[in-house]
Design a protein that fits this description.
single chain; alpha/beta; 328 residues; 2 domains; binds acetyl coenzyme *A; five-stranded mixed sheet; Peroxisomal Thiolase, Chain A, domain 1; 12 helices; four-stranded mixed sheet; globular
């Protein structure tokens, strides 16, 4: 089978209507708008309705991506959903999405890579197209982080938001994905986790009472790793192509904390004001959905033009990380 050039041929996003501002959070926990803005760059985040699950958000984003790629659901050969907040343990959210799109023979699976999920899913999807096995792969990154957020824990509840992004991958004539770098370090898994609900600690009255079904994070420690790892991942993806910082038109990073992104840009010798795409102020950290929504909005706003070389760069629980260079 021929190796093909693979690119992103359609993008979509979905953000729930309900906005939760820093001022709203001041009424829930002991925090201030100044602290949240100064430490994270987040002003507000979107919160899904109670009756809105991850698959619902993913379907909205998928429909927009299909429209932008001028494809019908039947044209999709594989469905991948990146999420750590699936509708339920099983069936996979990808199977639920598949059913909602009405394409009930299409293979479908989830990837659980936290904030790096969109990058991992694109990396997986691209292999199927490159090898000629599939023509069009629908990748979604969708998270209802509010469902695993402890609204009594001020150190985490101010950070997260809900949303979904989608991308359709297919063969392109020029450019496309030029390089992929993925990584993981399971020895640091304790830095960010949801301790209960799995086979290690199944749900019980005591796990609920101990608030173990919410995400727990050692923010300081993660911050340090995030800066180092995101800068290294960017280098690992760009160096084999002989690309220097100046050759990158725009970095579209996972939106965890504006201070992390400024520090990464500094390490790379890049002016963050000009070359780092930011929408963290509006949405907070949506885990895997963050870089997917950021890519979609960067394209919508005309920040990514044909011929541009862009870098997706993400880091998250696991630990996991990934960087992808794409010529648009
Ligand atoms: N409002 C007011 N004060 C607060 C708040 C709050 N919301 N949260 C914490 N504080 C206090 C702390 O109690 C502490 O007070 P103390 O000095 O009296 O003990 C003080 O602020 C400083 O706390 P730190 O945790 O040291 O604050 P830091 O500057 O590290 O910022 C943050 C915290 C924003 C979480 C930062 O560490 C961070 O962004 N870390 C990385 C997060 C990340 O990248 N996660 C990975 C991706 S997410 C995923 O994979 C799902």
């Amino acid at each position: 089978m021929d190796e093909k050039k693979v690119g992103i041929i359609g993008l979509g996003k979905y953000l729930p209507e309900n906005r939760l501002t820093n001022k709203d959070l001041e009424k829930i926990v002991d925090t201030t708008d100044d602290w949240i803005m100064g430490r994270t760059g987040i002003k507000e985040r979107r919160i899904a309705r109670d009756d809105e699950a991850t698959s619902d958000m993913a379907v909205h984003a998928a429909k927009m991506a299909l429209k932008s790629a001028k494809l019908k659901p039947e044209d999709i050969d594989l469905i991948i959903v990146a999420t750590i907040t699936p509708d339920m343990f099983f069936p996979s959210t990808a199977c639920i999405v598949q059913n909602k799109l009405g394409i009930n023979r299409t293979p479908a699976f989830d990837v659980s890579v936290a904030c790096s999920g969109f990058i991992y899913a694109i990396a997986i999807a691209s292999q199927f197209i490159k090898s000629g096995i599939y023509k069009h792969v629908l990748v979604m990154a969708a998270e209802k982080m509010s469902s695993v957020t402890d609204w009594k824990d001020r150190s985490t509840c101010v950070l997260m938001g809900d949303g979904a992004g989608a991308a359709i991958l297919g063969e392109v004539k020029d450019g496309g994905i030029l390089s992929i770098h993925l990584g993981a370090d399971g020895s640091k898994g304790d830095l960010l986790k949801m301790p209960a609900g799995g086979s290690r600690l199944p749900a019980s009255i005591s796990t609920v009472e101990a608030r173990m079904h919410f995400l727990k994070m050692q923010g300081n420690e993660l911050f340090r790793h995030a800066v180092k790892i995101m800068a290294e991942a960017a280098l690992k993806a760009t160096e084999p192509l002989g690309l220097k910082a100046d050759d990158i038109s725009l970095i579209i990073p996972h939106q965890a904390n504006i201070r992390i992104l400024n520090a990464v840009a500094k390490r790379m010798g890049i002016d963050p004001a000009k070359k780092v795409y930011l929408n963290i102020e509006k949405y907070g950290n949506m885990s895997a959905a963050s870089s997917a929504v950021a890519l979609c909005e960067a394209v919508e706003e005309g920040r990514v033009k044909k011929g541009d070389t862009i870098l997706l760069d993400a880091f998250g629980a696991g630990l996991t990380w990934g960087a992808i260079v794409i010529k648009w």
